[in-house]
Amino acid sequence: MSCISAMLKNPLTVSPKDTVGKGMERLLKERIRSMPVVDGRGNYIGMFHFRQVLKQLLPKSVLAEGGVDDLDFLHGTDQQVVDKLGDVYKMKIGDVVDTERPVLREDEVFWAMVHMIYKYDAPMAVLKADTRKLIGIVSKQSLIEELLRRRAFKEE
Fold this sequence. Notes:
By secondary structure, the chain is an alpha+beta fold.
């Protein structure tokens, strides 16, 4: 059993040339947490998600290794965050894309998929074997639905 059985085909995607604002609007409209970023040929580049947007809003001193955790000294700067979001909104998705999240291959064994979804707590892109071609995604929901479908089939 491979990850194809739990895969959602034809997922919503964004282009690295789209603005962060356009990507955020699509995430909100579709009520999803992330979308694959693909080039004009359908090759997977990474994932676009709100965490990457939030990362752009934080001061670099917070993001650095061993960075500042206590931000109480930033009182009265709410408008700065709003203004920073305005700048991020205009950026290209290609500038904020998460390229570090692992991917699943179409022939990935089911156990590996369960482990990856658990470990990263996020949808995973499924790529055609030995390529960067996106063929779908697996979400926690699609995985659980597939497991329940198989359980129901077994009980019949």
